[in-house]
Design brief:
about 400 residues, 2 domains, alpha+beta, eight-stranded mixed sheet, elongated, 15 strands, Rossmann fold
Length: about 400
């Protein structure tokens, strides 16, 4: 991965050819073997870390003029701290560089306000940080060391620079072992799938036997290809997303009480079906297999003319799932005159319902903060207020 990066970016190639011990770590450029003096004048080795901004999957550019540094603040030969390095104490977890522990950030902006490229940027910072160590000990940052890089475990086929730019690599790693099932790829299920595809879960399994028709287009993300009409939903979404990530398997099948094998290994599930009897059977299957899940649903009406109602996302943890199922928080019977089946072009509500469910999942995994461990989240369309319950 790194050599491909160097082959498409002359500035990074120049750093490599000059002798820097350089690698990439999930959207960061990591330069090891940076000598500096500590407050006692002792020679130390640090590392520079700087963000990469992806342009087209091959070319990258700088994010800004700042860097991160793994090490203490560098000093002059006389023991005084080097000035001109604004910034402060900070932490930055890295995904594949466990030996590099970022302790601070530095900011040194050139007179023109920006660096031309990565080569100029790194050379400038190294000159400031390493100058005293080079003078006192003859140290050099040009070690030509080939760093053995921990293989990337990313499921994405494109460089995930969004995670690095937001400095949340440690939080994203919380999904690394998740195998998530999406049961039902209709209005809410398709948006839920769209959100999950960008989440670094290990695998996504989706199930839906229905065809992709013109009415489906009005409540699903993405653009329409004429050839998609009349084909299976699972095949349509598999084609749309398989170039983005690994671990995606969408099948044209129903999930029922006999689908144990299809859910083997699943660590979390989303139930996105609008038929009560199907939901009941799926609930029993998930409970029997001790799979925690979130069920989503809408209850809409036209009693006052305009559409009103609620969106719901209910969490069923393993230890409490049967009790919650017995409370019948979700519809477990069929109602053929349900308003949802009449007024289906409500993509914004589908998307919002999906967003509530994914946010709740990410709270459960520790990605988002949660004040209380809620079971049920209900949003009223009329006043856009939420009612949250611990059951």
């Amino acid at each position: 991965m790194f050599h491909e990066l160097a082959s498409h970016n002359e500035d990074i190639k120049s750093l490599l050819e000059k002798g820097y011990a350089i690698t990439e770590d999930h959207g960061y450029l990591v330069i090891r073997d940076i000598p500096y003096l500590d407050n006692n004048g002792v020679l130390q080795n640090g590392a520079i870390v700087t963000k990469l901004v992806d342009i087209d999957g091959k070319k990258v550019k700088q994010d800004d003029h700042q860097i991160f540094f793994a090490g203490s603040h560098p000093h002059h030969i006389d023991g005084t701290p080097i000035t001109g390095l604004a910034g402060g104490i900070t932490q930055l977890p890295l995904a594949t560089s466990p030996d590099v522990v970022v302790q601070r950030s530095f900011s040194n902006k050139p007179d023109r306000g920006y660096y031309v490229d990565f080569f100029e940027k790194i050379e400038n910072y190294v000159g400031i940080i390493s100058g005293p160590a080079v003078e006192k000990y003859g140290a050099t940052p040009y070690t030509f060391r080939l760093v053995e890089q921990t293989p990337s475990q990313s499921v994405f086929k494109f460089r995930d620079t969004l995670t690095s730019r937001a400095q949340m690599v440690d939080l994203s790693s919380k999904f690394a072992d998740d195998i998530v099932a999406v049961i039902g790829l209709g209005g809410t299920g398709s948006y839920l799938l769209d959100f999950l595809v960008k989440t670094p879960v290990k695998q996504i399994r989706g199930f839906d036997f229905d065809d992709f028709h013109i009415h489906t287009v009005y409540r699903s993300p993405g653009r329409l290809q004429q050839t998609e009409l009349g084909t299976k939903k699972a095949a349509v979404y598999q084609s749309r997303y398989e170039n983005f990530r690994e671990g995606l398997s969408l099948e044209s099948r129903y999930i029922d009480g006999q689908s144990n094998e299809n859910l083997r290994g699943v660590t979390f599930a989303f139930v996105c079906v609008d038929k009560g009897t199907s939901r009941a059977e799926i609930f029993d299957l998930l409970i029997a297999n001790r799979i925690p899940f979130i069920d989503v649903g809408m209850g809409l009406n036209r009693n006052r003319g305009p559409i009103n109602g609620m969106l719901r996302a209910t969490y069923y943890p393993v230890e409490d799932a049967q009790r919650l199922r017995d409370m019948e928080l979700a519809e477990l019977a069929d109602h053929p005159d349900d308003e949802y089946r009449v007024q289906i072009q409500i993509s914004e509500l589908n998307a919002l319902n999906a967003a509530l469910a994914v946010i709740r999942f990410k709270q459960i995994r520790g990605f988002y903060f949660e004040e209380e461990a809620l079971n049920s989240l209900v949003l009223e369309v009329g006043d856009l207020k939420t009612a949250n319950e611990i059951l």
